[in-house]
Inverse folding.
């Protein structure tokens, strides 16, 4: 079995797309718009074939994104090396994203950093 894609609602669809394209190398489709519901989305594809759908529509409810909530916790991206994790972490911090942890080697052996990315969502960068 293969997870075909993961989807996430966002407030600012264009800014979320730009985040994934600029920082994580995503390729975006041209987008979809349903004029009846004003639903809009982009499918973002990554080098390994993983896909993320980002979506928006009128009437979304913004809930607190507490880091210890149930459900979605973070999106993790493997960058291939410790150096790549360090470099992108430094770039994102310089661009104003909040560093939550790392870069560090975790107790279970992962080298990672976690940042608060677009719209308060946690992004994990790992080897």
């Amino acid at each position: 079995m293969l997870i075909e894609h993961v989807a996430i609602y966002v407030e600012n669809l264009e800014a979320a797309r730009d985040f994934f394209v600029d920082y994580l190398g995503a390729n975006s489709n041209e987008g979809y718009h349903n004029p009846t519901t004003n639903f809009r989305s982009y499918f973002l594809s990554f080098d390994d074939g993983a896909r993320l759908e980002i979506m928006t529509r009128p009437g979304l409810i913004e809930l607190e994104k507490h880091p210890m909530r149930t459900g979605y916790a973070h999106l993790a991206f493997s960058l291939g090396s410790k150096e790549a994790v360090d470099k992108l972490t430094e770039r994102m911090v310089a661009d104003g994203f909040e560093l939550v942890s790392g870069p560090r080697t975790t107790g279970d052996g992962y080298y990672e950093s976690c940042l608060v990315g677009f719209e308060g969502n946690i992004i994990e960068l790992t080897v």
User: Anything to note?
Assistant: The domain at 1-58 is CATH 3.10.180.10 (2,3-Dihydroxybiphenyl 1,2-Dioxygenase; domain 1).
